[in-house]
Write a structure and sequence with these properties.
By secondary structure, this protein is of the alpha/beta class. It is about 45% helix and about 15% strand. A hairpin with a 2-residue loop joins strand 1 and strand 2. It starts with a strand and ends in a 9-residue tail after the last helix.
């Protein structure tokens, strides 16, 4: 079905794998088209309760495939027609999204990782704000997410100098959720994704919405949204299950409904 990505679902966890390993999973128009289709599939499929995005081979993604960039290219138009739809669709997902950073994440590849809710990073992987090295600014939502994760000053430093960030440094500055060794890589990603997939999915989606709204609302507006969100959470099957499990002193069995 897909030529530039792989998509599979196992035990309520969908995995979207960028699949151009010979090009370090660099983005093309076809890849963006297929990613958008896969993300819409995740959104519609109620059996999917968590999404993992990763890369095939030795890279997560090196960003845009510069081999296809010609002189006089309108970079803004490329963003509007290719990158923006993917980033908007990703931001709309009311399910937890994990970036499994298996190797280098550079340029817009890093932007994709930043747009995910959680980042698990291989101990040998590197993060690179590569834009400055070709005279461009970070794009694909990069500077929207980055300062929210690491703060304004560190975001500016990373964007301007474009130096490689090791897994250890990324963990120190709060850029990633956890680091995994090579031996534990697949188990770490699997355990983390399955844990999220077993949690109250609708509550997680509401938490994501609340956090995103908190940057743009007054306290009064936010409290109104909070009350609405809590009402919606209170109507879910998982809320009733959680209360019943508490009363019966047993582990909760959430279904995502």
């Amino acid at each position: 079905m897909y030529e530039t990505i792989k998509y599979e679902v196992n035990d309520s966890v969908a995995t979207l794998t960028l699949n151009r390993p010979d090009k370090l999973n660099a983005f093309t128009e076809a890849m963006h088209r297929e990613m958008l289709h896969a993300l819409k599939t995740v959104d519609r499929d109620e059996s999917v309760r968590c999404l993992v995005i990763t890369g095939e081979g030795r890279a997560f993604s090196s960003g845009e495939d510069l081999g296809g960039v010609g002189e006089g290219l309108d970079h803004g138009e490329v963003l509007r027609t290719r990158y923006t739809p993917v980033m908007i669709q990703l931001s709309k997902l009311q399910k937890p999204v994990i970036a499994a950073i298996n190797g280098v994440a550079a340029g817009s590849g890093l932007s994709l990782a930043l747009a995910c809710d959680f980042r698990i990073m291989h101990e040998k992987a590197k993060l690179v704000q590569a834009f400055i090295h070709v005279g461009l600014i970070p794009d694909s939502g990069n500077l929207y997410y980055l300062p929210k994760i690491v703060g304004h000053a560190k975001a500016l430093e990373l964007a301007v100098f474009g130096e490689k960030v090791s897994a250890e440094e990324a963990n120190r500055i709060g850029l990633v959720t956890k680091i995994s060794t090579d031996e534990e890589w697949h188990e770490s990603v699997s355990d983390f994704s399955r844990r999220l997939a077993s949690m109250p999915t609708k509550a997680i989606g509401l938490i994501k919405s609340q956090l995103n709204a908190s940057y743009e609302m007054s306290l009064d507006e936010f409290l109104q949204k909070e009350a609405y969100g809590q009402r919606m959470a209170g109507l879910t099957h998982d809320h009733r299950e959680g209360v019943q499990a508490f009363i019966e002193k047993r582990p909760s069995v959430f279904t995502g409904q």
